[in-house]
Amino acid sequence: MPETNPETHVIGFRAAERLLASRDPRGAIKLLDSVIAAHPESGAARLMRARAYFASAQLRAAEREFQHIVDHEPDNAFAHFALARTFQRSGRPDRAQRHFRLAAALDPRPEYLEAARFDS
């Protein structure tokens, strides 16, 4: 097994970003698993892995990761929005609505406000 160091993890993180951007979420997950094993507190790596799980339709894993982020960063509007999208995609709109509204309250981006449906 090759030796790893902080630089190796940065390289793995950057490579995972490229894989996710090029629509290879499963490849990104493989790289991020080792980064997160070495740095479990890394919110950025966990957020990217959650996005990769979502992109590869691994919704339970995506939910678990987004929930972890929301639990540790309750003011992360994107994590709330993405968790809501995950609930929505897995057929749980009631759970989604709460997180859509939290996302919009934290960051009034148009897409968050639209999803929150405050007027209904």
UniProtKB/TrEMBL annotation:
Annotated SUPFAM superfamilies: TPR-like
InterPro entries with a match to the protein in the record: TPR-like_helical_dom_sf, TPR_2, TPR_rpt
One family name in Pfam for this protein: TPR_2
PROSITE patterns listed in its UniProt record: TPR
Keyword annotations of the record: Repeat, TPR repeat
Repeat region (TPR), residues: 77-110
Domain of life: Bacteria
Name of the protein: Tetratricopeptide repeat protein
Gene source species: Streptomyces spongiicola
